[in-house]
Design goal:
Jelly Rolls, 2 domains, five-stranded antiparallel beta sheet, 1 helix
Length: about 190
């Protein structure tokens, strides 16, 4: 008996054994190998959810201030090393991070604000990149702000996901009374880990 793991191919057809075929290993192996090849191919074509990270703060006391002026995006000044960020361990090149942010934003008079998500792959050595999309909040507005985006990991290690903001004007830009960041790590199905 021999071991066969399958190849990453999708055979268009395979010869079936019929009544006139001599039944031996060679006559059945072609069909079995084709089925195993298709199984490996199908396993490798999609993504699977590996894990989810969620940070939540539902306390009315949680207020985060952003003072970054245009055109720079920056983290909160309240506590930039812990507020509004999630750390995703053991990421690999090609992994996809699906990111959802929900927060209550408050923008003062004569000011507008834009929020977006920043992701640093290989955190500690990597450079922060902005994920696609942003949310804009108008002057003198209090509203629930949502961002749904994604990021493709470009360097293995730990990926840090955080909420960034920038303001136009001199008024306050705050996140108030709770919110969440949800990060789902999607890995190609064929990955061995």
């Amino acid at each position: 008996m021999a071991q066969y793991s399958g190849n990453d191919t999708f055979p268009a057809s395979a010869e079936l054994v019929n009544d006139g075929t001599v039944r031996d290993a060679a006559s059945v192996n072609v069909l079995v190998e084709a089925a195993l090849d298709r199984a490996v191919y199908l396993r490798n074509v999609g993504f699977r959810r590996l894990s989810t990270w969620i940070i939540d703060d539902d306390g009315a006391a949680g207020v985060w201030f952003f003072t970054s002026a245009a055109p720079t995006y920056a983290p909160t000044i309240t506590n930039p090393t812990t507020d509004w960020l999630a750390t995703v361990n053991n990421t690999r090149v090609g992994d996809i991070l699906q990111i959802d942010v929900v927060a209550d934003a408050s923008v003062g008079a004569a000011t507008t604000a834009q929020f977006r998500v920043g992701v640093t792959d290989n955190f500690g050595s990597g450079t922060e990149a902005h994920a696609p999309g942003f949310a804009s909040v108008a002057t003198s507005t209090n509203r629930t702000m949502t961002i749904s985006t994604y990021h493709t990991v470009t360097a293995a290690g730990t990926s840090r996901v955080r909420l960034l903001a920038r303001r136009y004007g001199s008024g306050s830009v705050e996140l108030r009374e709770g919110g969440s960041i949800r990060v789902v790590l999607l890995r190609p199905s064929g990955s061995t880990a």
